[in-house]
Amino acid sequence: MISKIIFYLSFWFDFNRVNVLVTLLVFFSFLIYFIGRAKKGKSLFIRRIAGLDAIEEAVGRATEMGRPVLYIPGIEDMDNIQTVASMIILGNVAKMAARYETTLIVPICRPFVVPVAEESVQQGYMAAGRPDAYDKNSVRYISDEQFAYTAGVNGIMLRDKPAANLLFGSFFAESLIMAETGFSTGAIQVAGTANIHQLPFFVVACDYTIIGEELYAVSAYLSKEPKLLGTLKGSDLAKLIIMIILILGAILATANVEWFRNLFFVQ
Amino acid sequence: MSLVDFMWMSIGALLTLFTFSYLYKDNPFYKFAEHLVVGVSAGYFAVLLYYSSFMPKVIDTVFRPIEWKYFILAFKQIKPEYLLAALKGSQWWYLVPGILGVMMWTRFSRKLSWISRFSLAFYMGIGIGASIPLTLQNYVLKHLTSTIQPVNFTSLTGIWRLLIVILVFCTLVYFFFSREHKGAFGASAKVGIWVLMIAFGAGFGLTVMGRVALLAERVIFLRDYWVELKYFLYMLFKYGMLL
Amino acid sequence: MGFYEKLMSLDRRWVYLCVAIAVVLPFLLEEFGVPIFIPPYITPEVKSVYNFVEKLREDDVLFLAIDYDPMAKAELHPVARAVLKQCFKKNVKVIISALSQNGPGMAEQLISQTAKEYNKVDGVDYVYLGYKPFPALVIMGMSQNFKLFFPKDYYGTPLDSLPMMAKVRNIKDTKGVIDVAAGSVADMWINEGAGRYNYPLALAVTGVMAADYYPFLNSGQLFGLVSGMKGAAEYEYLMEKGGYMKKEEFDASRGMPIQMFAHIVVILFIIIGNVGYFMSRRKKS
User: CATH says A51-223 is which class?
Assistant: First the structure.
């Protein structure tokens, strides 16, 4: 009887991936716990990221020079978490741009990102108390195609000559082309991406680089939103546990104890 | 090579040289090539999307199988059985995602843009729901099990494994945001950033290789075109002399 | 401005000129009767892809995903062509998809040219599915049933009427997947494809992306990795040794001398730049 139940249940439940489910539940419980703490107003410590000051400095410099700020949110769609983080940072940058009365240009690669970017910029202007200053044309759809988008962005950099280029999101082969073009125009550049293979180009071509997960930390730090802060703390706890598992696992594996490693093995 | 192929090759070579002209400075030829690629890719993708997605999923599945005579009769005589007969071969339920797609277009209307949030939520929900367990499995658990290996100082493999465990640990410390990077913790984070920079250097090197490869292909193309051009000019001259 | 400061602020157009000379040099040497052929060092990850295809038997089915567009043609076209040639020579059947939005036409050109060389018939020896948007969903769909997303092939023929598709319902019915990709589609194959449905997967990616996928190779999620033009040159070299290709048919290998000279120039400029940086810093302090 039980074997029959398990047989029919296996069509709906993959018993080989129970450890994935357990990991997911543990991780989600961390997130829910810390989000709860953040919502209750308990202070959650996050260390200051060096690139944060650079963003405000970049927008300030653009204001002084009377030139626009170019914000590039990457080339991926809204299903990419980097684009989501980028939209949060865009909201804060829009708030700064509204406060300093600096023109903001946001070229977009994916159609689905356009309404979200418009919403973020609009919210930013509203948060700064300048809803009237919001220009719908600041968010522009360029092209879905990677290098066509790059060509369009390069064109904006060369023609509009922004004083500050902020590149936050998911980038691929176009990252160096854009960062190099921005460098050649003399703009101050701050970049952040979790795409590891694009980080080297941002490190060499930009003034400040926010590496990998720091992008998500910046979005949490800037917005101070309980959900983002709680998420960051939850993932920090998960990282701590992974570090402990690594060290413990290596010691146990060296001592020929295999069961510990097999706990995390997925077929 | 036929004359038509040579003509297309000539256009390709010309556009390549227009794009290379940017190396000197921005100019109208580069701008022309840039706008051409933007326009052509947008046009190509629009047509491709229509024929690969809209036609098979909407026109061919929903509207083409409809028996229109029964459909019209159903409305003229108000008989549901005619409607059922009309829709018999049609997969009309594909209209549901179609409507969700059309709802996205309400974004352009200031009054109705709130409707697009439903489609966006649906799309984001599916994307995130499908990818989270898979990402955890493929990007965390599988890499964790491959990193947890027996270590020792007696063999090169054992030393490499120990090094990997230590360096992965230090890199994770760098991305730990709940504590200031001070003391031993800070020292580990410094090792972590060094590991990152070494990894970035390797990535940079591979990328330079990739970029040079793209340049190499274009140069080979130009060189092959030069060979064809010399032959074409020779034939032109030869037939010109004959005439 | 001191000498070292001048080194650091060298106009980039001098760098372009030196790279241009380095790139033209192999052709000039060839004109003067000194052709350069550099036999590549065969890396284990490329050899494992070659050996995987080599071990396939007649009538086995391989899935080849051509997920790049003309921008990445230089690095990836040679690999796709080589794998197709190897399969067609061995009478291995191939199912091909093109999930990159600008790639379907280019992929069709490659497939029809290569099929013509080996007298292969569409529907019998190979099936070209074409393009559908949202690659992640398409990959998941194909892993369950090809007809979910491709009721017809690229040419409009229903899949049911193709003799080759009679025994193949989804990707799990094939021997494995070789994905030739230039974007995030590679991640989707790892995550939504092989990661979920457990079939063998190898990647052929551009040089830029290659560093990102070595952890997957080490963890066993990929059985092989061909990186960039160099990887393609290695594959071509193995194809020549296996009797599948002649030196005259090499594509990627023609670019290796150019790569060598260009890399030497880049290394020299890196050294010059760093010497300028450290010496000018020393001078300031």
Answer: alpha beta
Which tens digits make up the pLDDT trace of C100-110?
A: 988 899 999 99
Tell me the three state secondary structure of residue C60: coil
Give C 25-44 residues with CB within 8 A of chain B: 27
Element holding A187 (H helix, E strand): none
The residue ranges of every structural domain in chain C are 3-36+258-284, 44-250
Enumerate the domain spans of chain A.
18-45+234-262, 51-223
Q: Could you tell me the CATH superfamily of domain C44-250?
A: HUPs (3.40.50.620)
- Determine the residue of chain B that is closest to A25 in CA distance: B133
Contact C56, C241 (CB under 8 A): no
- The whole-angstrom distance between residue A185's C-alpha and the CA centroid of its chain comes to 26
Compute the C-alpha angle B93/B99/B104, nearest 5°: 150
Prediction ipTM score:
0.83
Q: Among C71, C26, C79, C24, which Cα is nearest to C53's?
A: C79
Using one digit for the tens of pLDDT, what is the confidence trace for B1-36?
788 888 999 999 999 999 988 877 778 898 899 889
A14 touches chain C (CB under 8 A): no
Return the structure tokens found at A214.
């720091």
Low-confidence ranges of chain A (pLDDT < 50): none
- Residue B209 to residue C230, Cβ atoms within 8 A: yes
Q: How far is A62 from chain B (nearest CA, A)?
A: 23
Residue in B145, B172, B201 closest to A265 by CB: B145
Q: What is the pLDDT of residues C110-147, one digit of tens each?
A: 999 999 999 999 999 999 999 998 899 999 999 999 99
